[in-house]
Specification:
Elements: E1 3-6, H1 12-23, E2 27-32, E3 46-50, H2 56-66, E4 71-74, H3 89-117, E5 120-125, H4 138-158, E6 163-170, H5 178-185, H6 195-207, H7 215-227, E7 234-237, H8 239-248
Parallel strand pairs: 1-2, 1-4, 2-3, 4-5, 5-6, 6-7
Helix pairs in contact: 1-7, 2-3, 3-4
The structure holds NADP nicotinamide-adenine-dinucleotide phosphate.
NADP nicotinamide-adenine-dinucleotide phosphate is lined by residues 7-8, 10-14, 33-34, 51-54, 75-79, 98, 102, 125, 127, 170, 172-173, 176-178, 181.
């Protein structure tokens, strides 16, 4: 039986991905900052483990408790919309700590066992915003684009050890807690310099709401990366992400 470890399973894409792999008879290690046993159906193939990706002790303990892992899904992340100039450095650091350094820390912790077994898959969930120079997401976009870059570079380093790496790029989804969390970090709507630009940009984004991404699209894209060795390194997830990827060429 194959084992997948997923970060950020308390809600959204991570939770749906855990559900999908459980349904398809995998052993699932669902990790959360605050572990909850009631979010997923009870199963002897399910293990819920505490994992804060920004805490190296927590990363080491979780990987040690997990045992052999066939597939790791770096999904934990958050956004903080604000103009570049107004984004507090503390928020910039938090964005990189979680979205970028957290992904690096978990991957470095899992890679040795995969290399020794000559088998494994690493799936990094970034974002389709990396495909377009959108305003108000400069820091989030940079944190996710860094993951795209390191994933592409490490692909050829680890391929000789039988390890595959993939990027899943979700489009915009209202089915998760992402927007609610991002709203807590929103800055600049009342700013005398950037306020009007922000309001107009957000109104334009709302008006041009395209097809959107469902949590299931992301879970299926992660499944494809995990189970199909022929799947591409970059997998857009959701109709809007597929459209943006085609436009980006
Ligand atoms: N929804 C979208 O529109 C969208 C689009 C493109 C990409 N994404 C990306 O997709 C991923 C999943 O987001 P989502 O939409 O499913 O949002 P979500 O419902 O807010 O889920 C985010 C998950 O990340 C966890 N998390 C945050 N910081 C963490 C940390 N330090 N350590 C461990 N877990 C942490 C959260 O846990 P807590 O409950 O503890 O906060 C939560 O489980 C993220 O990487 C996000 O950037 C989302």
């Amino acid at each position: 039986m194959k084992t997948v470890l997923i970060t950020g399973c308390s809600s959204g894409f991570g939770l749906d991905t855990a559900r999908l792999f459980l349904d398809r008879n995998w052993r699932v290690i669902a990790t959360m900052r605050t572990p909850r046993e009631d979010l997923l159906p009870a199963s002897d193939r399910l293990q819920v483990i505490a994992l804060d990706v920004t805490d190296s002790d927590s990363v080491q303990k979780a990987i040690a408790a997990a045992g052999p892992i066939d597939v790791v899904v770096n999904n934990a992340g958050f956004g903080a919309p604000a103009p570049f100039e107004l984004t507090p450095m503390e928020t910039v650091r938090q964005l990189f700590e979680t979205n970028t350094f957290g992904t690096i820390a978990v991957t470095q912790a899992v890679l040795p066992q995969m290399r020794e077994r000559q088998s494994g898959v690493i799936v990094n969930v970034t974002s389709s915003v990396t495909l377009k120079p959108l305003p108000l997401v400069s820091m989030y976009r940079a944190a996710k684009a860094a993951v795209n870059a390191l994933t592409e570079s490490m692909a050829s380093e680890v391929a000789p050890f039988g390890v595959r790496v993939h990027l899943v790029l979700p489009g915009s989804s209202g089915e998760t807690r992402f927007r609610e969390t991002a709203y807590q970090y929103l800055k600049g709507a009342d700013d005398p310099v950037y306020g009007d630009f922000m309001k107009q940009t957000i109104a334009r984004m709302m008006a041009s709401n395209g097809p959107g991404t469902h949590a299931r699209d992301v879970a299926e894209a992660v499944w494809q990366a995990a189970t199909d060795p022929a799947s591409p390194l970059r997998i857009p997830a959701g109709a809007d992400a597929v459209q943006w990827a085609a436009e980006a060429g």
